[in-house]
Design brief:
The complex is a heterodimer of chains A (411) and B (172). In chain A, the strands form six sheets. Chain A has a four-stranded antiparallel sheet with strand order 1-2-3-4. A four-stranded antiparallel sheet of chain A has the order 8-7-10-11, with no helix packed on it. In chain A, strands 14-21-16-19 form a four-stranded antiparallel sheet, with no helix packed on it. The termini of chain A are far apart. By secondary structure, chain A is an alpha+beta fold. Chain A contains five helices and 21 strands. Chain B has 172 residues and is mainly alpha-helical. Helices cover 74% and strands 0% of the residues of chain B. Chain B is built from ten helices and no strands. In chain B, helix 1 runs antiparallel to helix 2. The longest helix of chain B has 20 residues. The relative contact order of chain B is 0.09. The chains are: A alpha+beta (411), B mainly alpha (172). The interface between A and B is large, with 42 and 59 residues.
Chain lengths: 411, 172
């Protein structure tokens, strides 16, 4: 404060500063760009993708630990020109130029960090990414935008400590294309799936590599699932079928090397079939590492009039929820639950590895009776002795089980 | 409904994000991150104060970004649109204020934004940031002193005194 101010002026100065900073901040934040269209749908999509990343990260970290133990000594140190190496699959490079090379390099670096080959907080300078790319020597098969430029799908092969690996992944274009804010290890925007790559011409040559890409649906309320399928040059034709919400189930085929198709909302896994392998259906994903589609939500629950809902959950797979704000009630408490999975999809018996088991709910570690996903909506009473000052609700199901659960009091 | 909340409060929360980050693209990213984290918990959060929850996630997320991300100045190829004789002066004021805010330590900046942009009470700011009311007071005082030292509030103070709105705002 200026020394010449008279006594009592301090309050005036403080008020003036308070008011001035309010004016300044209001003016600074004026002239806001318009809200992006479909913000709600984008948020929902991002939440679901986050869950998929969590699942993929668990799988990848297990693989990474195993690989680091067995193959660290094979880390290549050459930084020579990026020619196609002898270990790569002799598949064509089908990139269509719609994604800048810098974004594709970032995808490789993102995979390296999500798998734990590199730890710590990455430095995403161009030089650091270039170093990682040269170290892991990616061989590209697919790199392109889909869904009118909204998403990016990639398929590539790298050589790391664990030997050659096939990688398939995707992300929203808005999260990685030039002009978007930088990202770090905690917010790596790529959803990646990988497995050991077969040796060219060797045993166990994979006939295809595929992945789901979740995109915003036309309705904006639930995510569409696209599939990206890259086939081996030896494969003449591939077909796919799956339980879609719109048409129940559908089957399509193509002779293209690269299939990119929007299947809409799904109620289960999509299976691929290659003529010449009768009876063999392959789930979408890199063979040996199935991918997970985002399932449509089950129908809304129908609660009896005596049920007063406190909280409800909609999800897929496992979820643990801790909520201390749900104080135990003197009234009886109950769950209403509904779920579906491959077992519920009448007329579509896909041999999906996603499981057909029940939905299980536990309260503070106490298991309630299992909810069979073929039995429709069920109500489970919660014994009062299961409750305490804190309510921990754990919902367990297979990754390919979609469920809706409501908790409330009865009476 | 979560969708109604996003439609109704999205703009205001994005302004809050901009006040924190000083960058519209980052503000949008910050808001999306917070909303994506809020969405799965909506059925519980909506019973209390969902906006406070989102604000808390935004300030915590931004704080972590501030520690990790590159924060250099972003060059702009476009000059601001001009509609009057004071446009350049106003743009200069905003630029100076944005720069001064960017130089504040993250906690001080968060206190300033929550206290003076979001109009939260000192107790509410303390609760949201997980600090004491005394710390809120001291951080706010330090932040205002820093802004005062850089003279970035002068244009707004002068305007306030000139147009007589001080009395209305301050109750004097």
């Amino acid at each position: 404060m200026a020394a010449w101010l008279p006594q009592g002026a301090s309050d005036v100065t403080r008020i003036t500063d308070d008011h001035a900073i309010r004016e300044a901040l209001a003016e600074l934040t004026d002239g806001q760009p318009p809200m992006p269209p479909g913000r709600f749908a984008a948020v929902r999509k991002r939440a679901i993708r986050h869950r998929r990343r969590q699942v993929a990260a668990v799988i990848s970290s297990v693989l990474a630990v195993a690989g680091l133990v067995t193959g660290l000594s094979r880390l290549p140190t050459s930084t020579g020109p990026l020619a196609r190496p002898s270990w790569a699959l002799q598949w064509p490079d089908l990139r269509n130029g719609s994604v800048p090379q810098s974004v594709l390099d970032d995808a490789v670096a993102g995979w390296v960090y999500t798998t734990g080959y590199e730890t710590g907080s990455p430095n995403w300078s161009a030089a650091a990414v270039t170093h990682v790319v040269r170290l892991f020597h990616p061989v590209w098969y697919v790199g392109q935008t889909i869904d009118h430029g909204q998403e990016i799908a990639v398929i590539f092969e790298v050589s790391g400590p664990m030997g050659p690996r096939l990688v398939a992944g995707y992300t929203s274009a808005s999260e990685v294309m030039p002009g978007h804010a930088a990202w770090d290890a905690s917010t790596i925007p790529w959803v990646m799936n990988s497995r050991p790559a077969p040796r060219p011409g060797g045993q166990g040559l994979v006939p295809e590599v595929s992945e789901y890409v979740q995109a915003q649906s036309a309705s904006g309320l639930s995510g569409d699932n696209w599939i990206v399928v890259l086939t081996s040059p030896a494969v003449q034709r591939i077909s796919w079928y799956g339980p879609t919400v719109a048409s129940g189930s559908g089957a399509h085929s193509s002779s293209d090397e690269l299939v990119v198709a929007n299947l809409g909302q799904l109620r289960g896994d999509v299976m691929l079939r290659i003529p010449g392998n009768p009876g063999e259906s392959i789930p979408v994903g890199i063979p040996g590492a199935p991918d997970i589609p985002a399932l449509a939500a089950p129908p809304a629950l129908t609660a009896p009039s005596s049920f007063n809902e406190i909280v409800s959950f909609t999800g897929q797979g496992n979820e643990t929820d801790v909520d201390s704000s749900l104080a135990p009630s003197r009234q009886p408490a109950a769950f209403i639950a509904d779920c579906y999975n491959a077992a519920s999809n009448d007329g579509f018996a896909a041999p999906s590895p996603g499981g057909t088991g029940p939905l299980r709910i536990s309260v503070n570690g106490h298991a309630l009776p299992a909810v069979e996903c073929t039995s429709g909506q069920q109500m489970l009473m919660v014994p009062h002795s299961y409750q305490s000052h804190k309510l921990v609700i754990q919902i367990t199901s297979s990754d390919l089980t979609a469920w809706q659960v409501a908790f409330g009091s009865v009476g | 409904m979560f969708e109604d909340f996003v439609a109704g409060r999205g703009q205001a929360l994005q302004r809050y994000g901009y006040a924190l980050t000083g960058d519209w693209a980052l503000a949008e990213d910050l808001l999306q991150t917070a909303l994506a984290s809020t969405y799965p918990r909506w059925s519980r959060i909506c019973r209390d104060d969902p906006e406070a929850y989102v604000r808390k996630i935004m300030v915590n997320t931004w704080s972590s970004w501030w520690r990790r991300r590159w924060r250099g100045e972003v060059p702009s190829a476009q000059l601001p649109d001009g509609t009057g004789p004071d446009t350049y002066a106003a743009a200069d004021h905003r630029h100076a204020l944005r720069s001064a805010l960017a130089k504040l330590p993250p906690r001080q900046r968060a206190v300033v934004v929550l206290r003076y942009h979001q109009d939260l009470s000192e107790a509410q700011v303390a609760d949201l940031l997980g600090i004491s009311v005394g710390t809120v007071k001291s951080q706010a005082a330090k932040a205002l002193a820093a802004l005062r030292q850089q003279a970035v509030l002068e244009p707004y103070r002068n305007r306030t005194v000139t147009d007589g709105s001080l009395a209305a705002a301050g109750g004097e």
